[in-house]
Amino acid sequence: MKSVDAHLADILATVRPLAPLELELERALGTTLAEEVTAPLPLPPFDNSAMDGYAVRAADIAEVPVTLPVIDDVAAGSDELRAVGPGHAVRIMTGAPVPAGADTVVPVEWTDGGTASVTIERTTGPGNAIRRAGEDVQAGEVVLAPGTAIGPAQLGIIAGVGRRRVWVRPRPRVVVLATGAELVEPGLPLGPGQIWDSNSFTLTAAVRETGAEGFRADTVGDDPAAFLDQLDAQLVRADAVITSGGVSMGAYEPVKEALGPLGTVRFEKVAMQPGMPQGFGVVGEDRVPIFALPGNPVSSYVSFMLFVRPALRKMCGLPAGPPETETAHVIGALRSPQGRRSFLRGTLASDGTVSPVRGQGSHQLAALASANALIVVPEDVTEVPSGTAVEVIRL
Ligand SMILES: Nc1nc2c(c(=O)[nH]1)N[C@H]1C(S)=C(S)[C@@H](COP(=O)(O)OP(=O)(O)OC[C@H]3O[C@@H](n4cnc5c(N)ncnc54)[C@H](O)[C@@H]3O)O[C@H]1N2
Ligand code: MOO
To answer: MoaB/Mog domain spans which residues (predicted)?
Structure first.
C-alpha cells in the first residue's frame, strides 16, 4: 500500500498555484497577494494630532494654569492652516494636520474647552499627542510581501497606501460532486435503502473553510456515463474537483469506472484508516486536479484534511504541507490496524488531554461531529495505552 506521505507528495507535485489576476479590493478578501505592495508616500503623510485638543508651543504652557487666545480651528481634512505664533493656541481635532509653529498638543480634557480663548490646566513637553509623518511607513517601504494571505487588516493597508486594485492569486473554484444511487437531497423524504447526502455539504463547507470557493453540484447515481456528463458540465467553472464515493471494490463504482480508463487518474490504496481507497489525477484539457475521495463520511472528511486541504493551500499560493499536529496525552487505550496510519476521532481538552469519541466507524457521522481532533496513530503501532503522548490534528 502507498504511504500517506507519498500520496500527499504526489498530489503536491501535481497541483500548481493559480495564475495571478488583478482584482478590485472589494473582491480580494481571502486571496493571496501576488505582488509586493509598497507605500508611495509616508504614512501618516503629515504630522497630525492624536487627540482632540489645542496645538500650542510647549514653551507657552510651561507654567499652568495659563490662558491663551484661540486663533484658529482645524478639523481633520483642513488644508488652510494658520501658523501658531508665540502665546497662541489653535483648536485641533484628531487627525488634523499640526499647524506650523506648534510643537505639542494639549488634550481638551486638560483645559476649560474654550473657543475664543482657552485655559490650560496641565502642562506637557514638546511632541505630546502628535503622530509623526512616516512613523507607520516610510515612502517606498514594502508594506506587504507576495504570498501574504489577504485578510481585513491587509486590505486596510493596501487601501491605506492608495491602491484600488491588487494582483492576487484568486481563491480556487472547487466543485464538489457526490455520487451514489442511494443519495437523497436533505429535506426530501427517504425511500427504502436511501440515505440523505451529507458528504457534499461537509466537503463544500471544508473547501470554504480552507479559503477556496466551494460549489456543490447535483449528486449523480451509479452510472459512469452520467457521472462523466456531470463532470464535463462542471469543469468549465472548476480549478479543482472533489468527488465522493464510487472508488472501492464494489460492482457499481462510477467514479473509478469513468475515470480509470482516462489514464490520468490513479486509484490506489493508501495505508490509512479511514480513507484507504483514494483516487487522484487530472481531467480535461486544462488538466484540472480531481480528488476522488471514498464515500464513507468520516473517510471523505479525513481525506480532505490530509490531502485536499494542503493541495488547495498550494493552489492559493500559501505554504502547503501535511496538517499541523500537536502533542496531547490520550485518556483511554487505543487500537489501530498494523501497517496503516490511523486518524481516530477525539475530543481535545484545554488541559492537553485527548479522549477518543465513542463510535470510531467510518460511517459514524454523529461521532465525527462530536470530535474536535484527529488522534494520529503511526503505522507500526497497534496498541496505545492510556496516558501515552500522541500527536493530534485539530479539526
Ligand atoms: N470489498 C471491499 N469493500 C470495501 C473496501 C474494500 O477495500 N474492499 N473498502 C471500504 C472502505 S475502507 C471504504 S472507505 C469504502 C469506500 O467506498 P466508496 O468510495 O466506493 O463509496 P460508496 O460505496 O459509494 O459509499 C460508501 C459508504 O458511504 C456512504 N455514502 C456515500 N456517499 C455519501 C454521501 N454523499 N453522504 C453520506 N453517505 C455517503 C454510502 O452510502 C456507503 O455506506 O468502501 C469500503 N468497501
Ligand atoms: O478506509 Mo475506509 O475509508 O475505512 O472507511
So the answer is: 175-314
Residues found in the chain: 395
Interior angle at CA 23, CA 17 and CA 29, nearest 5: 75
H/E element holding 316? Answer: helix 309-316
C-alpha cell at 23: 482584482
Ligand 2 atom 4 nearest Cα: 274
Q: Which residues pair with 177 in a beta bridge?
A: 243
Query: In the beta sheet, which residues pair with residue 43?
Result: 137
Q: Evaluate whether ipTM surpasses 0.95.
A: yes
Q: Does the Cβ of 148 fall within 6 Å of ligand 1? A: no
Kindly list the structural domains of the chain, giving each domain's residue range(s) and its CATH number in brackets, ordered by start: 4-18+171-316 (3.40.980.10), 21-42+144-169 (3.90.105.10), 48-131 (2.170.190.11), 326-394 (2.40.340.10)
User: Measuring CA to CA, how many Å separate 23 from each of 20, 27, 31, 62?
Assistant: 9, 6, 10, 54
Q: How far is the CA of 277 from the centre of ligand 2 (A)?
A: 7
Angstrom distance (rounded) from CA 99 to CA 158:
28
Q: Whole-model pTM?
A: 0.92
What are the grid coordinates assigned to 157, written together?
493597508
What gap in Å lies between CA 117 and CA 71, rounded to an integer? 8
Coil/strand/helix, residue 18: coil
C-alpha dihedral over 93, 98, 101, 105, to 10 degrees?
A: 50
Q: Which atom of ligand 1 is nearest to the CA of 299?
A: 14
SS3 assignment, position 293: strand
Q: Is the CB of 364 under 6 A from ligand 2?
A: no
